[in-house]
Amino acid sequence: MSEAPTPNKRKKPSLTEKRRAARSYALQAIYQWQLAGQALTEIDAQFRVDNDMRDVDVQMFSELLHGVATRKSELDAAFAPYLDRAVEDLDPIELAILRIGAYELMQRQEVPYRVAINESVELAKVFGATESHRYVNGILDKLAQRVRYAEIRARKG
Fold it and tell me: Which fold has domain 15-156?
């Protein structure tokens, strides 16, 4: 007599959870890139080896890491007008979060603007200074008003 298969006790993460994990790892990888200037391919490979990526949207992780690095100047220029200081004077974590948020707002149109902003705010709550989530929210909200104007206007009716 054969035994019934035991159910897999590991809950399969949702796409939202996988994307949230991708953003978290991307933030850490971008932070490392900003500080060390290490090659992106090395950082990408290191994160894939050193971390359990089963519950991560690995494609999104890689897109954020490489996309932010490739478009760094464009992203910085997009949110710089809304800063109260120079881009170079930002905390490296806040800078990485703003770059991710700006990238999503500008390059990932399939991600609703509210999701892009909220996910960046959540990263700031976890990794940033005490009130950095408010700062990130304010900057990205102003950027969204410019780069997602049609979406915001349609949402308001």
Answer: N-utilizing Substance Protein B Homolog; Chain A (1.10.940)
What pLDDT, in 10s, does the model give residues 105-153? 999 999 999 999 999 999 999 999 999 999 999 999 999 999 999 888 8
Burial of 75 (0-12, 13-18, 19+ CB in 10 A): buried
Residue 87 has φ and ψ, to the nearest 5°, of -55, -40
Q: How many CA atoms lie within 13 A of 152 on its CB side?
A: 14
Angle value at C-alpha 93, between 71 and 112, nearest 5 degrees = 60
Q: Express each pLDDT in 46-61 by its tens digit.
A: 999 999 999 999 999 9
